[in-house]
Design brief:
Layout lengths: L19 H11 L10 H7 L3 E2 L5 H7 L7 H9 L3 E5 L5 E5 H23 L8 H14 L2 E2 H11 L5 H11 L2 E3 L13 E4 H5 L10 H11 L4 H8 L5 H7 L3 E5 L5 E5 L14 E2 L5 H4 L13 H5 L3 E4 L2 E11 L2 E8 L5 H20 L6 E6 L6
Parallel strand pairs: 12-13
Antiparallel strand pairs: 1-3, 2-3, 4-6, 5-6, 7-8, 9-10, 10-11, 11-12
Helix pairs in contact: 5-8, 6-8, 7-8
């Protein structure tokens, strides 16, 4: 259960207009970025509906920014024990989720993945029996975990004349593939090899495909949000019927442009003036990618610039990017603000940056020297 300081809560009535700062503080609280929470890794992953995981270390950094006293080995142990999996879900992107969510969510978003497959590779796959392709590919990866390149080459031996990359993408879209350790374990690396979720987790996928629970969980972790936000996050379309079915369980607000925002009945809405600490985000962080309209966390003029790189928050909003530079027995956190920042903010960033560096290096490079620097283009 998320903890919230009583003084931080405000209670807007249904139909109220929520400004950008109100939405920002709601997002930070629900994304565990306003106050670090004392939750288990599994509980945090399920509350957040998974974490982006294109970069295997991304979920570790994301959880460090969100949980009190986060131990990366807790997540690594869950991955090794097959209780957490890295699998393509929302928007056909890799997410780290609990085993339960892997099996429950994949059927819900399967139409999204197949639609995107058709849009991206439809011409390249013309004439192929996709059911036969999926069956053959499943046999390959269940015999032994395979890399993406291996899958494509094996399939191309049987579907001659087709691009291996298109064949591998088709198979990965049609069959839920889980990335197998050691890749995804903290401080370790390995080839990106995959097998089926059913084989790895020892259980079949769930049967339910209705998006109702997914939408309710999304609102709990990202709300209040518009239907356009729900579509952007999940990739799901034609949500009108779902929303009308859920309306008795929802409350309604408006943003400053007059668009309707929906929310769960018990969703926390902290006071817009609640102080927000400096926070470093992982690449492709949930908080950045969770909405069609990202004004609640990022200025529209910087939207494209801020989606991919690792970013940091000041006063709750994206204020720049960061990167880790490794040298011989030295690790540097370089902070690149978009604009000049005040001295107090620089101190807060530097202190949080040193804590992040300690986290990133302590267990894998215990003798490395660490320091924080601001990029030369910082005008403060």
């Amino acid at each position: 259960m998320l903890t919230t300081r009583a003084a931080d809560l405000s209670r807007p009535v249904d139909g109220a207009v929520l400004g950008v700062r109100a939405l920002n503080r709601a997002l930070l609280h629900r994304q565990l970025l306003l106050h670090r929470q004392e939750l288990s890794v599994a509980d945090a992953l399920e509350h957040l509906v998974g974490l982006q995981s294109q970069n295997p270390n991304g979920p570790y950094i994301a959880l460090w920014s969100r949980l009190a006293d986060f131990d990366p080995e807790e997540l690594a142990d869950l991955v090794a024990a097959r209780k957490v999996a890295r699998v393509a879900l929302m928007r056909w992107t890799l997410h780290a989720v609990t085993a339960r969510d892997c099996l429950a969510l994949r059927p819900v978003v399967q139409p999204v993945i197949e639609r995107r497959l058709k849009a991206t590779f439809g011409r390249d796959l013309a004439g192929i029996d996709l059911d036969a392709l999926a069956s053959r590919g499943r046999a390959f990866v269940e015999h032994e975990p395979r890399s993406f390149g291996d899958i494509g080459r094996l399939l191309a031996n049987e579907w001659t004349g087709y691009e291996p990359r298109a064949l591998a993408n088709a198979m990965s879209a049609l069959v839920p593939l889980v990335h197998v350790p050691p890749r995804g374990l903290w401080g370790r690396n390995g080839r990106a090899v995959q097998t089926t979720a059913e084989r790895w987790l020892g259980r079949p996928l769930e049967c339910a495909t209705q998006p109702d629970e997914l939408i309710m969980r999304y609102l709990g972790a990202f709300g209040p949000a518009s239907v356009a936000d729900m579509r952007a996050w999940s990739g799901l379309t034609r949500l009108d019927t779902t929303i009308e079915r859920l309306r008795p369980l929802l409350r309604s607000f408006r943003d400053e442009d007059g668009d309707e925002l929906l929310d769960v009945l018990d969703g926390a809405l902290p006071d817009p003036e609640t102080p927000a600490p400096a926070r470093f985000l992982a690449d492709f962080d949930n908080a950045v990618l969770g909405h069609a309209n990202r004004a609640r966390i990022d200025a529209a003029t910087r939207r494209k610039r801020a989606v991919g790189p690792r970013t940091f928050l000041l006063d709750g909003f994206i204020a720049g990017t960061w990167r880790l530079i490794r040298g011989r027995r030295v690790a540097t956190l370089e902070i690149a603000p978009f604009d000049a920042i005040e001295r107090e903010q620089r101190i807060a960033l530097a202190e949080e940056g040193m804590r992040l560096l300690t986290f990133l290096t302590a267990s894998v490079e215990p003798d490395v020297r660490i320091h924080v620097r601001f990029a030369a283009n910082d005008r403060a």
